[in-house]
Amino acid sequence: MTAVHPIPTDAENVAAMTPSAYVTADTLRAGDPQEHEMVHLSSGDEKFTVGTWRAEPYREFIESYPGDEYTRVLEGSVTLTADDGVAHTFGPGDAFTLARGWRGEYRVDEPLLKQFAIYVS
């Protein structure tokens, strides 16, 4: 097994994704995310994951984000509105971090494709 694996960002990557379900019925407020993902790297204890995730437009309210995440948006856009009302919108090429425990609205404004690295403790 080789230790270096390129991470594809093209249509072949999207076609190889499998369905995922991070958004729950309890958090979903509108839309149908139709989530798909590809895991590129996961630690043995599965607490650290690097992957690519795709979703259709939807809106959810998250009570407590489960981990510390770094995200780079490849396509589409997402708006995060914290519980205090401060909103940030991110589009292609933008990167952001989201801290464990963050509370607010996570809204995918147009079909989103992102790469992420998350640590869930």
From TrEMBL:
Domain named (S)-ureidoglycine aminohydrolase cupin: residues: 44-115
InterPro entries: RmlC-like_jellyroll, RmlC_Cupin_sf, UGlyAH_Cupin_dom
Ranges annotated as spanning the membrane: none
Protein name: (S)-ureidoglycine aminohydrolase cupin domain-containing protein
